[in-house]
Give the backbone structure.
Amino acid sequence: MARRPTAVAAVILALAGACSGGGDEAQPLATPPTSAGVGTAGEPGTTPGDPVTTAVAATPRLRAVELAGFRAPIAAAVRDGDDTLYVAEKAGRVRALRNGAVDPTPVLDLSGQVSGGNEQGLLGLAFSPPGDRLYVDYTDTAGDTSVVEYVFVQGRADPSTARRLLAVEQPFANHNGGHLAFGPDGLLYIGLGDGGSAGDPQGNGQRLDTLLGKILRIDPRPDGDRPYTIPDGNPFAGRAGARPEIWAYGLRNPWRFTFDRQTGALWIADVGQNRIEEINAVDASAGGGQNYGWNRLEGTRRFSGAAPAGAVAPVYEYDHAGGNCSVTGGYVYRGERLPGLRGSFVFADYCRGEVLALVPDGSGLGAVPLGPRLDAVASFAQDGAGELYVLSLTSGLHRLEEAA
């Protein structure tokens, strides 16, 4: 795998159905940029991501242990104080893994309400910090995005309490994003792709008047007639012509973003077009407003026009050599069972399927294979103890364990 040795310090490592547009033959990475950016003389470049985590020990060799009972799992979530792992199946059901067994009764069944397209369906779920609300993100039968809240009682979502927070029209059938996560600030973050097709024909990634190509931040509590509240500190609140929900922009299809449970750093895996897959990371103290460059940039390469001023460069990028096609983001490992993995960001590529860890290599970050290789890696999951799982659309849910 190619890597990008930016000026990121060694402390930087101590953020399916979302396949890229495809079409062009993969090409090797250009000469990696320095911290000065990717622009040529007189042009704005990008700034490297901030150091966000702590150094790690030697990475262990792992195995993936299959846990039977799920069909096309695509996302998972946990509730505070609950040992259950809640798993979303792409076709529209949320199921519970309790004490090693799958509950035969779905926690929530939306199978009649979701579309069946390749990059559509039930795409994300998250629980409110108290655990009394379940939020889901799905593509409805019209092909548009819905984010809906349910009251959660006695281990189930109550369908009668459904409350739609957000409805976003999708101009094309791909790049729906769909990830949901509550941040350390207790607010709900929502990932949306650029609207689809290829190359972002509507320029949504760089536009601030649309929610497409963004990560949003909202407080799901109602505000008057609005079904949610715009939090204080949202970077574009009050700016003419900009949507106040926007937290970060310039994204093509953020296929999983996560918060480091120890540092609060935000890690974003953004699927590329034809050449480059990228992983971005920003320190919790940085706030919002970051522009990650799409569709002017694909990773650190120019895609369409000049690089936007101040665009944030990925902390790691790789090309499509060796069968790569689409990055699937995971988590910074903070569990106890795999001490050699602590502090490393674990991820995979949807097509190649190797489970990888980002570790400092003296000049930046390098990706180290951890052993498991699975088909159609759609997502990762983290249980309440910080242990990691891999979700494959074809082979189901797998727990990562140290190899014998």
Notes: Residues 359 and 365 are 5 Å apart (CA to CA). Residues 1-56 have pLDDT under 50 and may be disordered. Residues 10-402 form a domain with the Neuraminidase fold (CATH 2.120.10.30). The chain has no helices and 30 strands.
